[in-house]
Amino acid sequence: xxxxxxxxxxxxxxxxxxxxxxxxxxxxxxxxxxxxxxxxxxxxxxxxxxxxxxxxxxxxxxxxxxxxxxxxxxxxxxxxxxxxxxxxxxxxxxxxxxxxxxxxxxxxxxxxxxxxxxxxxxxxxxxxxxxxxxxxxxxxxxxxxxxxxxxxxxxxxxxxxxxxxxxxxxxxxxxxxxxxxxxxxxxxxxxxxxxxxxxxxxxxxxxxxxxxxxxxxxxxxxxxxxxxxxxxxxxxxxxxxxxxxxxxxxxxxxxxxxxxxxxxxxxxxxxxxxxxxxxxxxxxxxxxxxxxxxxxxxxxxxxxxxxxxxxxxxxxxxxxxxxxxxxxxxxxxxxxxxxxxxxxxxxxxxxxxxxxxxxxxxxxxxxxxxxxxxxxxxxxxxxxxxxxxxxxxxxxxxxxxxxxxxxxxxxxxxxxxx
Length: 418
Known about the structure:
418 residues; 4-stranded mixed β-sheet; Urease, subunit C, domain 1; TIM Barrel; alpha/beta
């Protein structure tokens, strides 16, 4: 028999509930489940939510937290990020990614979509930390044919190498943006992803400058450009999508493209605020939430990201009923899981056992008239007490094995970036 975990008396949808986990999956969710052989977790005084899904980040950029703050996006990339990224070693990325996994775990995230360099280093970190990572091979060819061919070879080699990792690590393709990746390479990536059924993730329509330059360079806006290239598909998810019109939303919906909202970095970099969450959802687009990297959002707290997404959406619309708390939790769990292509994000029998227990004995949940409202608007990641991923306890009583060593190692490594 596979290992079992029984969570007793935890609050779920306003009721005391038992959850039986067997192996990597949820076996049963019921009012009362008789104790069996295995681990029993006392869920009294706690509520359960699906593990949160961070649908867009750059994990190892934890190393750059606080570097390049309060700068425009273009200058931030050219003067702070790209020069420092050129210094990164395998070990740097490994420890930066371990810190990211620790930070995500401590704030309730059990799965994330990453776009970064030195993918094997991040994969190694994810394997060791015990959460899930859909890891994209970040690529740039800067419209140079020789770099296009090198990028193709790199992606093929990395894809072949991912068979060495377990089921919690998935390979994906990460063309950076339309201003750093040629149309020819984007089309090759689309064909490669179709052949191997791989997710593709790209930054798109993040700033007004990007849209204006797209019109100058390609004769159309970013979404229309990708449509013209023939690379819009259900395998594609796009980060940001701040500047899209009704026709572009329809294009994305018709092609099954998914979208990730990153409210913290959009506000901090002043990229824009009018993310059309409601219109996209009404059109049938799957919309998730991401934190972006720590260099542009400064933390990886998805509970904070849900609050920011809701408040920002209400503010620019001047509509207090827009983007309610329940919709934000759905976007950060079930919708995020759909973007990553992982059977998680829901508390139902047959789904992967990725769960978080929230401590209700805190000021944020006192009184607890509405748990979801308190979670989104009052709490933050520190409310997470226990994290289970893939049917294994990864954090309990807010303690993660080895966290002190991770903090110490990253503190030393990060000194060279100052």
